[in-house]
Amino acid sequence: MRAKKIGSLMVMLVLTIGISLFAICSGTMPAQAEPAGKQSCKECHAAAADEIKTAGGKHRAVPCSGCHLGHPPTARKALQSCNRCHLIKKKAHYELGNCRSCHKNPHTPLNISFTDIKGKCVSCHANQVAMLRENKSKHSAIECSTCHDIHRKVPECTRCHKPHAADMVVAECRECHKAHMPMPVTYAANIPSKDCGGCHRRDLDVLSASETKHKPLTCAFCHQEKHRMVPKCQGCHGSPHPEGMMARFPKCGSCHNIAHDLNNWPVTPQKGPLKEAARK
Predict the structure, then answer these.
(1) DSSP 3-state of 72
(2) Where along the chain do its domains lie?
(3) Are 120 and 96 in contact (CB under 8 A)?
(4) How far is CA 173 from the centre of its chain?
(5) How many CB atoms lie within 10 A of CB 106?
(6) What number of other Cβ atoms are within 10 A of residue 75's Cβ?
(7) Cβ-contact 135, 183 below 8 angstroms
């Protein structure tokens, strides 16, 4: 009798296990029995699913159950810590803590709002912060969020700065100035002279009005090493005058005025240094 009862229990246990396995394989188990996919979650959480789809970044590849381990009331703390996934990447940024101070919505992680400055930004943007610190300018004293009030937003320079010329566009600003180190001015060898004229209008106007061989040259042809560099005339012209004259008047401008206006000589053979040189 006892053996018969044990046999019946074994049969019921086997049937129960078999039915459960069939239910799992056929997908007829209740939704709470296994982590729900995004499609199931969307039935109640359509807004969150749409946010993930449109602005989820790398979170798009993560199932809902990857962050939400369970659902209330069964699970009291359904949302896991960000560090569960991100701290393993061994980057300084992930060690900051309080992720939600910038990443307000985990479903749109790259839609970042912040008021903090370089303390947090430096953890990802160390090169930019280093340029600001090592190249002091008015940009060094302002918060990162003054310009980048939205993450990855690159503002137009003319939002704060008046352009050097009326026809100057924002793209031309970046040809000479780097936003994180604006004072060291750099430019390409083929930069048009009109861009230089934005700051050096008088020099460009004088050169344009001259009738010398310097007129067709671009500003960068002579000022090619760095901004404010003034080349020596001998670099192109050598020593065109007798050695005695060159020794007495080592500065070409003593006779030839400025390179932008060679026609306006300050001396004549009848008087001044040329007449004295002619006597010797």
Answers:
(1) coil
(2) 21-110, 114-186
(3) yes
(4) 15
(5) 19
(6) 11
(7) yes
